[in-house]
Structures are given as C-alpha cells and as structure tokens.
Amino acid sequence: MKIIGICSSPSINGNTGVLVKSLLGELENLGAEIEFIDLAREELQFCRGCMSCLRTGQCIIPDSLNEIRNKMAVADGLILGSPSYGIRPNAIMKNFLDRVGLFNAYAAMFGDKYIIGVSTAGGIGAKQVAKQLTDLVICPFKQGKIVGTLHAHVGVKRVEELPDIDKKISKLALKMFNAIERKRRFPFQKLFKKILFGILLRRIFINNLMRNKDGRMKAVYEYLIEKKILAA
Asked: Which pLDDT tens digit goes with each residue over 65-114?
C-alpha cells in the first residue's frame, strides 16, 4: 500500500503540513509505504493551456509536474493539503490542480484512488477547502473514493495545541488504511455529481474524445483503452 501526501503550505512547518505529515506517520505505523511532497519547494510553472498532455500523455513543461503525477498514478491513496486562503485552496495548490487537472478530467487518472482532504485556517474556510480538494478523484469516466477530511480552525494557535487532534488523525488514518486494504467502494458519495457525469457529461466527453482520438486527445484515448475504462 502506497500513500502520497501532497501539501501546498508555503511554511516549512506550517499547520497544514503538520496535519498531512501526521496522517502519513500514522499510516506508516499501520504498515503503509508513504511519501510527502512539499509543493512549495518543488519547481512548478503555470499551466500554459497548450493541451499537449491530452495528445502525448505528459506535460511538456520541464519541471517537477510529470514526476509528481507519475508517483500519484501508482499510489493507492492521496492526501491533499492546503491552507484556506479566502475559503479556497492557496495559489500553489490551485496551480498544481490546474496542471494535473486537464488530463485527469478526461482520463480519470486518479479515478481509482482513495483520498483525504486536509486544510487549516486562522479564521474560516478549512472545512470547505478540505472538501474541495477531494474533488480531484471525481471524474466523468470514473470516480475515486473519498475517505474523509481533516480540517482545523486554529486562530493564532499551533494545530498541535488543539484538543483531540491526535485522536482525529489516528481515526482518519485507520479509516484510510482499512478502506484501501478492504477495497471499500463508498457508492453513495458525491451521488449528484456521479449522476450528472453518468447521464450528461460522460456522453459529451466521449463524443469529443472520439472526434479527436487520433489527434489532440490521442493519449487520453489510449489511456482509457489500456485501463479498460473504454472498449476499443
């Protein structure tokens, strides 16, 4: 079992990073192989909107994105963490989601993953941001499994000072470990989105894909065939 924690906090020992690392530590104690990726310390340029990833399967920008995305592709579980900036993920995480989002939206590259969203806020927004981060695995062709969220409104405190935070971390880590080990499905999560994707967006995506499967969406088509999400 491989779990990757990805955090976008600009602070080296920020509250969000502490929560992501603590979850990973608990999962490692349970027997999982873990890795922590600190986005603020990675080289990540902005998405150029060239859509080359849809044609080639890889981003053409020579930075850290392809390496990170390839690690995510082989992981069983993902933990995404961002502080709340205006009740949204911060700019570092938004950019990262832009970079991985286009190919994933069509190919459902992370549609078989288990995910936890993590966020902290000095005031408000941590709960909303943590939920937003889990949308990464909800795609038209396939939907991943949302294990839960971990969020904390810390004010001027350190997250370590919050009551019962260790219990929440341990409980959520155990839930993810057991869910992956038992291949739990969570069939009723994001039910409205699943229905919307299944009835409307999936057909739109397929039509677009079939028109462009030999050109600008070649890599997406080949990926979906390889993963047996679409029939050849």
From this structure: 999 999 999 999 999 999 999 999 999 999 999 999 999 999 999 999 99
The domain spanning residue 53 has which CATH number? 3.40.50.360
Q: What are the tens digits of pLDDT across the range 123-147? A: 899 999 999 999 999 888 888 999 9
pTM here is 0.95
152 Cβ neighbours under 8 A, 6+ residues apart:
15, 19, 119, 120, 121, 126, 159, 162, 165
Output DSSP code: residue 114. E
Widest CA span in the chain = 56
Which is nearest to 132 in space by CA: 65, 179, 80?
80
Number of domains in the chain: 1
Domain of residue 76: give its range.
2-226
Nearest alpha carbon to residue 69 among 53, 81, 55, 82: 53
Instruction: Give a yes or no: residue 132 inside a domain.
Output: yes
Q: Looking at the predicted structure, is the pLDDT value of residue 232 above 80?
A: no
Identify the residue whose tokens are 């009835």: 199
Question: Which of these, 38, 34, 43, lies nearest to 16 by C-alpha position?
Answer: 38
Domain-located, residue 213: yes
Residue 232 in any domain: the answer is no
Q: Specify the DSSP class assigned to residue 198.
A: I
Starting from the edge strand earliest in sequence, which strands make up the sheet with 77-81, in order? 33-38, 2-7, 77-81, 114-121, 145-153
